[in-house]
Amino acid sequence: MLSLRIGFSPLNDAALIVVAEALGTYAAEGLDVSLSRESNWSNIRDKLSYGLLDAAHVLATMPLARGLGLGPTLGQIVAPMALGANGNSVVVSSRLKAVFEDHGASTLIATARALRLVIQNRRAASDAKVTLAIPFTYSPHHFVLRHWLAAAGIDPDRQVQWVVLPPSRMADHLRDGVIDGFCSGSPWPQMAELNGDGVVLFSDPAFWTLKPEKLLGVRGVWAEENPDGVIALTRALLRAAQWASDPANSTDLAEILSRKAYVGAPLEAIQAALGEGGAGLVLDPQTTTFPWISHAKWFMGQFVRWGLTTGDHDFDAIARKVYRPDLWREAASGLELNVPEADEKDEGGQTAPWSLPARPEPILMPANALFDGGVFRSVAS
């Protein structure tokens, strides 16, 4: 048995990491895994850097930030698979609920315009800026909020105050009036709503119907020393995804996540997030676990857009060094999964299910559309 230590954040989208332990798929692949429940993303990043973790549930942007030279740059992280799609929600304080209701804010653009009015009123009254919380500076959450705000003409740098908080603490800070809203992984937004402290404005599918969010991040040195171990680990998680994506297992999935050693949130909040109208988490191994190079390039484009890095990097080289579709293909062999023919695709523009070229059979993909109708093409047509 190959021993390794895997870190995770207590979120529903850590499902594959914890389900693989609960079901025994790690052991079935010859792995002796010890899980480490971490309180924040900085812990996970730093423990991967210093070899205290061999692999982890990581933000899709975290290894890219490393590749771009942002933050501590000790060692490389490689990503052989994604851990699903969607799973986040945006919440505002219950104190602001009336503003959104009065303006009939039922679309993303409408909610952003309602928030713009709050910002304008506060500025006129010389009150504090609207404060929004994110779990990590270089995070999909940060980019989603910025993209959303900018769509209504809000300057995310000048008109909003940003704070970084662990997801599990955000609802408490919302209740105490420290922040006005937050974006985090489920079930913490649903927890805030169930407690009456906040209102979920929208969840990932409303922003991007099949939004990339978390990856399996493997410490580069460990991956080089244990190439078969990387494939075994990826295969174990793909097997977990086959089980977790089966609707017949939804009740058991929620129960596993609710355990104190895993997410440790009330079952009601977890079920609200996983259910219809929740955070939209998708765990299908066929459509949401391939590490698309185009996802990496979209995220790096956001780093440039928001001034977090310059445009003079070799983005294709960075993407391919971190995101490893070749490892996914190797791990997927023998699991009756169809294998995408290309490493990149258009992101956005697909408002209905569509057929993706793959072998041995095409993959029927869910809609892949951004709320503003944008289409990102990482390869020139």
Characterise this structure:
The protein has 381 residues and is α/β, with parallel strands linked by helices. The chain is globular and about 65 Å long. The mean pLDDT is 94. It contains 18 helices and 14 strands. Strand 6 (130-134), helix 7 and strand 7 (160-164) form a beta-alpha-beta unit.
Q: How do the helices and strands line up, and which of them pair or pack?
A:
Blueprint (H helix, E strand, L loop, with lengths): L1 E7 L6 H9 L1 H4 L2 E7 L3 H9 L5 E5 L2 H6 L9 E6 L5 E6 L3 H6 L5 H17 L5 E5 L5 H12 L8 E5 L2 H9 L5 E5 L2 H7 L3 E6 H4 L6 E6 H6 L1 H18 L5 H9 L8 H8 L10 H4 L4 H13 L9 H8 L2 H8 L6 E2 L13 E3 L1 E2 L3 E3 L16
Parallel strand pairs: 1-2, 1-3, 6-7, 6-8
Antiparallel strand pairs: 3-10, 4-10, 5-8, 5-9, 11-13, 12-14
Figure out the total of helices: 18
Poorly predicted regions are: none
The 3D shape can be described as: globular
> Which structural class best describes the helix and strand composition?
alpha/beta
Q: How is the quaternary structure best described? A: single chain
Instruction: Write out the strand line-up for the largest beta sheet, numbering strands in chain order.
Output: 2-1-3-10-4
What does the average pLDDT come to?
A: 94
Quick recap of the structure?
The protein is of the alpha/beta class and 381 residues long. It is built from 18 helices and 14 strands.
Comma- or semicolon-separated keywords:
381 residues, alpha/beta, D-Maltodextrin-Binding Protein, domain 2, 2 domains, five-stranded mixed β-sheet, 18 helices, 14 strands, 41% helix, globular
